[in-house]
Amino acid sequence: LWQVPVAHCFGPPGHYKRKFCTVCRKSLESSAFRCEVCELHVHTDCIVFACSDCRQCHQDGHQDQDIYHHHWREGNLSSSARCEVCKKTCGSSEVLSGMRCEWC
After folding, report:
1. Among the listed residues 53, 58, 94, the one whose alpha carbon sits nearest the alpha carbon of residue 77
2. What one-character DSSP code corresponds to residue 82?
3. Tens digit of pLDDT per residue, the chain (104 long)?
């Protein structure tokens, strides 16, 4: 759950091989955008449907605790990615698969 919506910071459109759009889940074969902060990938046509769930890079106001929660993002892991717990392969270059924390 996100308490405050945080907008993505998309760079100029480019071509990203072996990546998938997190909105429509299809392969990025044409021009696409990538968030400079969290590396979210979306098609040019899907960018308007991307939710504002970028990782929060700062805290507004006074924060008594230094607690950072995991910020889970689905997919776009390398095909050689392995689970930190069981060490099994969890990435794929053929489908949008796996979960990764954007902080860890």
Report:
1. 94
2. B
3. 446 678 889 999 998 888 889 899 898 888 899 999 888 899 999 999 988 888 766 555 555 556 667 767 777 777 777 887 888 877 777 777 777 776 66
Selection from 39, 100, 42, 47 nearest residue 75 by Cα: 100
Displacement of CA 72 from its chain's centroid (Å): 8
Residue with tokens 């860890």: 104
User: Which residues neighbour 101 within 8 Å (Cβ) at sequence distance 6 or greater?
Assistant: 70, 71, 72, 73
4, 47, 56, 98 from 21: Cα distances, Å = 23, 9, 21, 14
Q: Residue 68 carries which side chain, given as an amino acid letter?
A: Y
Say if residue 89 is exposed, middle or buried (CB neighbours under 10 Å; 0-12, 13-18, 19+).
middle
- Can you give the pTM of this predicted structure? 0.69
d(CA 28, CA 74): 15
